[in-house]
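Replying to the earlier thread about multi-chain prediction with a worked example.

Input:
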Amino acid sequence: MAPAGDHDSARDREWSALMAAAQNGDRAAYERLLREILPFLRALAARQHRTPDRVEDVVQDVLLTVHRVRHTYDPGRPIGPWLAAIARRRSIDALRRRGRTEVAEVADERAYETFADPRAKEEMEARERAGDLGPAIASLPRGQREALELLKLRQLSLAEASRASGKSVASLKVSVHRAIRALRAQLKGDKR
Amino acid sequence: MSDATDRLIERLSAEAGPVHRLPPPARRAMLWLLAVAVLAAIVIAVFSDLGVFARRARDPQLALDMIATLLTGIAAVIAAFELSLPDRAPAWMLLPLPPLAAWIATSGYGCYRHWISFGPDGWELGESTHCFRFILAVSLPLGVSLMVVLRRARPLAPVRVAAIGGLGVAAIAAFLLQFFHPFDVTLLDLSVHIVAIAIVIAVASLWARWSERREARP
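Result:
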């Protein structure tokens, strides 16, 4: 990107003179140049990098490269395109590095909201479900609730449950079937 | 300003001594090509049979082929020097393409003509293994010396520079080969030349990539 306009070309001439002096060993001119080009480099880096940290990383990389290749600058040519070419190259390198890092790492925001051990999560969810189940069972008609308790919670056989409740096996089967259907409907309704 | 950037600028300015400015790339390219020309002239004068070469060189097709080969080499070397600097247009990559196309066309035509006059023998292996070894053996010292000179610019895209430089030295080697190649090029010979050139370009690029990664390692 070549600086445009009178202001930019005056700036380019000034930077070019500073770099020529720096090539001859003028450290003060070099330090001034590096400080003056910072906003230009930041603006270039910000085109490809969003966060200020990354922009600053690229700018530092560009400064190191400028330092390493400062003998390749020809004071007879504009310095803007020379700096911009270095900035573009380092910006792309940073994007590539970032790409490689992101391929190797996984960012999962939900990972912080759940449990590291899946069993812990299942237990937690089972408890939550049990919490819903208690009131649901309590709301069943007495016959259905009794059948459910005997057959499912206390896990008696149909014959034992029949003896304990004094009801027929057929009647218990119907009661427990209706109880489960009612619970299922009720819990589904809660979830919605 | 970030503190780290501020400290970096202080450090860089403190250690910034005077540097030797690189001469313009065209001049550097010409100096390298001149040095190669002097060495090549000595080797040709001492080792090649110039009488045989003079008889073969009367064939305009061979003359065209050699001119195109040499121009490819020169153009690729100039492009490599230009591209080794940060602010030169990537379009320099295209510079060797026209002579390269002419070189492939004249060689291909030569093979075709050879095939027409000799029939199926045109497919025979001429002295292909000799050509293959010649191109690789000449490209190696030329390539190493070119890379050493190009690296003075610390290219930002070293692989691209090495690939185009590799084409340059391989083309120069193929040009020099004609002085030690007392027969027409068969199709198979041409394929062998192309494979040898591809190997030189691949080796130069891989070497550049390897050295780039090594430098990037903290």
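Residues 187-216 of chain B form the longest helix (30 residues).

Feel free to reuse this layout for your own posts.
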